[in-house]
Write a structure and sequence with these properties.
The chain is of the alpha/beta class. The chain has a single domain, classed as 3-Layer(aba) Sandwich (Rossmann fold), CATH 3.40.50.720. It is about 40% helix and about 15% strand. Strands 3-2-1-4-5-6-7 form a 7-stranded parallel β-sheet, sandwiched between helices. Helix 3 runs parallel beside helix 4. The longest helix is centred in the middle third of the chain and has 23 residues. The radius of gyration is 17 Å and the shape is globular. The model has no long low-confidence stretch (mean pLDDT about 100). The structure holds NADPH dihydro-nicotinamide-adenine-dinucleotide phosphate. The site of NADPH dihydro-nicotinamide-adenine-dinucleotide phosphate has 30 residues, from helix 1 and strand 2. This is NAD(P)-dependent dehydrogenase (Short-subunit alcohol dehydrogenase family).
Length: about 250
Amino acid sequence: MERLIGKKALVTGGSRGIGAAIALRLAQEGADVVLTYERSQDKAQAVVSQVEALGRKGFALAADSADPEAVKAGVGKAAALLGGLDILVNNAGIFRGGPVAEWSLADIDATLAVNIRAVVLASQAAAAHLGEGGRIISIGSCLAERVIEPGVSLYAMSKAALIGFTKGLARDLGPRGVTVNIVHPGSTDTDMNPAAGERADAQRAKMAIPRYGKPEDIAGLVAYLASEEARFVTGAGFAIDGGVNT
Ligand code: NDP
């Protein structure tokens, strides 16, 4: 399908995992894409090469989501490189888990900065560029609404915050024809949560479909939400988690 011909998209954290799959899927659907990364310059460039091989424009920007100025500047640079902006995908995220007694102030601050503040700032900066048909899509988590295991409080808090933000922003931007939605992946095979990792069997045991999702599964839902077909969908959350929360 080519539902995004001529669209201009920014995907945060597009060098690996779910973000890389989203960047590629948006390009397959016709969009030009800027992706950000923190450290993985080579991997980001490899994704850009794949975007370009599809005949689309692709750019990689180093932009640490923990740095407010870098987040805001990244949106501005993306809009300048692409000649505007239609789609923002807030994907970059980190997982800091563990027992309550072991959380450091650095863990708490990093979780707040990357998983929440960066989403707020990028959305605010993107809103200045988005017009009728604009899209903001954030990546939440199946842990945002239901927490089925210990040791994930900080992460669950950060993703739950995005639900309220998504609903509020949908109200703020709806009159301008901009939709705002959130996608909640479950266990998805990436560096963050490998299907062969030591926590994997416990996760599979809780799922209706007891196997990990692929980053491409998440990307397909994001591409739908980015498309014109989804013009009446806003303020909504979408679980794509193998039924872990059923
Ligand atoms: P990965 O750890 O595999 O990839 C993370 C991506 O985000 C990389 O591109 C990384 O860039 C980027 N990133 C991380 N920190 C920063 C930062 N400070 N600044 C800029 N970019 C950053 O994660 P996933 O692909 O698994 O996760 C993507 C999203 O999906 C996250 O929001 C995560 O919370 C969410 N999610 C994942 C699930 C899973 O099971 N995998 C389940 C539910 C939600 P770099 O390569 O430079 O480090």
